Amino acid sequence: MKRISRRDFARMGAAGIGTAALRSFAAEEMHMPEKPTGVPTMWIGAVTHDSGVLKAKLPPRAEARLLVAAHDAEPFIFTPEPLVEKSGTVRTFRLRGLAALTRYTCTLEVNGKPSSHPPASLRTFPTQGNATSFGFAFGSCARTGSEHPIFETIRKRDPAFFLHLGDLHYVNISRNEPHFFRAAWDTVLASTTQGALYRTVPLAYIWDDHDFGPNDSDARTPSRTAARHVYREYAPHYPLPAGDGDAAIYQAFSIGRARFILTDLRSERSAKSTRDGAAKTMLGAAQKEWFKRELAAAARSHAVVFWASSVPWIGAADHGDAWSGYADERREIAAFIAQNGIRNLVILCGDAHMLAADDGRNSDYTGVRGLRLPVLHGSPFDQGASLKGGPYSHGVHLPEPGEGCFGWVNVLDEGGGVRIEFTGCDEFGEVKVRMAFAV
Ligand SMILES: [Fe+2]
Hints:
The protein has 439 residues and is of the alpha+beta class. It is built from 8 helices and 21 strands. It is globular and about 65 Å long.
């Protein structure tokens, strides 16, 4: 008889909780539950060297102030922006004038009284352009409201930020109903392990199919407007070049000499059933123009550029949902990278429930050898295994039932070339896939 180890037991529990949460959420989508009330919840993101965005859930009409203090210094006091929605409960605090590389504690004051709920905290980034080493965590895909310990593992590692590449939940909303998206966010934020992570580590997040619409969703999903609207309400995001309202969510930010470009590969994409050709797109015309401009400029002005792609890049052309199903556009992007002499780009991918790494020997779609595009996969946080695309030069790890995975990247920058160290780990920190390279 196979002995059940502590690790297996923990994983069975994690899988059970995830499944139960998913089941209860499926029921909740039919009869929308009361939103959690009376519990101020905070989450942070869009951090730079001197600013950040803190979102807080508060009782309707509550008067609130946010006290932001470094060590024992006098706190900065911020008041929230006016509510976008009269009935809304998410307040946005824009923190400004902070010092670089400094840890701040953020305490709420509600209706004149200090809140007894746990404070949020954030550490600002190093100044843009300065050579600085840092580590960040990334990945995708967690069951709705997952309490998986993987989120605790990530938080304890104290990354500079947490990059979520989509499938924040699996509610698969196909109707244009903002309150479905709000309820999904509320369920995610109510998770103990995820809530603590988002309260203390800056979040950078783009969606994939299940948190934008139904499975394999694209620009035609009826939920598109609601998804875009609630993203702006709930996600602490960097400035959105597409603007406010019903528009795509692509964005970019810098930390030290690294640039991160986050694309929206769902809300502008054409149907996967479209015949491959110039009209078949994942990015849409406006985003593609922005992406190319951003890519070319970032590659010159930064030592390393990371492209956050919510779907896999590598794989033989097919009719699927990943880049392999949009092979003409993939070739166009690869050719642009090659023609512009971009040699410092790294692609981070989500969607596939696996850890994987490729050093660039399988990622060149220009037809002319010479492009070296490293590709990293750091998923799933809490989902069953799925193998997509490939091959991957440095291997693939598929999680066992209940096992959580994430990607960790060290950017080692002392002013010359930059060294990148990738490890794909489980919730115990055990390394399953690793790759290191210089750019
Ligand atoms: Fe997923």
